[in-house]
Amino acid sequence: MTRVKKISRSANGSMSYLLQDDQGQILNPHSVGVGLEYPGVGPEISFMKETGRAEFYTATDEEAIQACMRLSRLEGIIPALEASHALAFLDKLVPTLRDGAKVVVNCSGRGDKDLDTLIQRGMPSSLC
Ligand SMILES: Cc1ncc(COP(=O)(O)O)c(C=O)c1O
């Protein structure tokens, strides 16, 4: 079983969430966005979760790839696959918002580093 647990890992005692198994062994996560392949988050993000100041959602590899291709097609911007996970979440978020609501997505990173992956996953060369 995989779970996320808050534990103290640093010498100064800061708390953060880590992906680990039932025995407490840290797991190697997978993501098509290689920058997300890290088993933990920092203490600031952990604190925001603890205090309800941030909410966290997931997107699959395929959802992120489709969102990346959509932004490339519609705007001519190739987002990094890491940020594409946030773009994928818009499909779930937007229908819940009132008319006229505005959403800001930080397109951190650069999708050109992900082109090999995107082409392998079917991105048309006209979008590259
Ligand atoms: C939040 C976030 N966005 C984007 C990226 C990708 O950045 P780049 O495309 O510059 O490698 C990373 C990489 O770790 C990241 O953590």
UniProtKB/TrEMBL annotation:
Q: Which domain of life is it from?
A: Eukaryota
Q: Which cofactor does it need?
A: pyridoxal 5'-phosphate
Q: Name one GO cellular component term.
A: cytoplasm
Looking up InterPro entries in the UniProt record yields: Trp_synth_beta/beta-like (IPR023026)
Q: List the keywords (alphabetical).
A: Pyridoxal phosphate
Record keyword Transmembrane helix present: no
Which PANTHER family does the protein's record reference? TRYPTOPHAN SYNTHASE, TRYPTOPHAN SYNTHASE-RELATED
Tell me the protein's name: Tryptophan synthase beta subunit-like PLP-dependent enzyme
Q: What is the originating organism of this protein?
A: Arabidopsis suecica
